[in-house]
Amino acid sequence: MVKYVNGQALEELIASTDKTVFCDFWASWCGPCRMLAPVFEEVSDKYENDAIFVKIDIDEEDSESAAVKYGITSIPNVIAFKGGAPKASSLGFVPAQRLENFVKENL
After folding, report:
1. Chain-centre distance for alpha carbon 51
2. Is there a contact between 47 and 101 (Cβ–Cβ < 8 Å)?
3. The predicted structure's pLDDT at residue 97
4. Cβ neighbour number for residue 33 with a 10 Å cutoff
5. Which residues touch 31 (CB under 8 Å, ≥6 apart)?
6. Of residues 13, 30, 56, 58, which has the active-site annotation?
7. 23 an active-site residue?
8. Is 30 part of the annotated catalytic residue set?
9. Catalytic residue among 10, 21, 23, 33
10. What is the pLDDT of residues 57-105, one digit of tens each?
11. Mean pLDDT value of segment 14-43
12. What is the per-residue pLDDT for 100?
């Protein structure tokens, strides 16, 4: 299951869990972001016991700081956070198998 968060909630989450957090930085006007949404949801359902999956809308006022902090200049951008810090990222739309491989590599 994917949870929608703001910048502060993301920071609190990545600081407080031992699991990898996969965060999809997106925006509602972004076509590739909308294409990735069901893929991200599908992969999150498969790995919900192993990792945490969240989405953050970079256009929301309380989320802009997170986008700046993590250098988000293109979306969609899925960042894997482990140990409170970014570990890896997957930029742009990717098919389910590639996203699943990214998740498995970064658990």
Report:
1. 11
2. no
3. 97
4. 22
5. none
6. 30
7. no
8. yes
9. 33
10. 999 988 989 999 999 999 999 999 999 999 999 999 999 999 999 999 9
11. 97
12. 98
Burial of 6 (C-beta count, 10 Å sphere; 0-12/13-18/19+): middle
Beta-carbon count within 10 A of 103 CB: 22
Query: Residue 2 is encoded by which pair of tokens?
Result: 């994917």
Cα 26 to Cα 61: distance, rounded to the nearest angstrom: 13
- Mean pLDDT, the chain, rounded, equals 96
Q: What angle do CA 39, 107, 27 make, to 5 degrees?
A: 40
Can you list the domains of the chain with their CATH numbers?
Answer: 2-105 (3.40.30.10)
- Closest residue by Cα to residue 20 from 90, 69, 79: 79
What is residue 59's three-state secondary structure? coil
Closest CA to 55 of 84, 30, 33, 31: 33
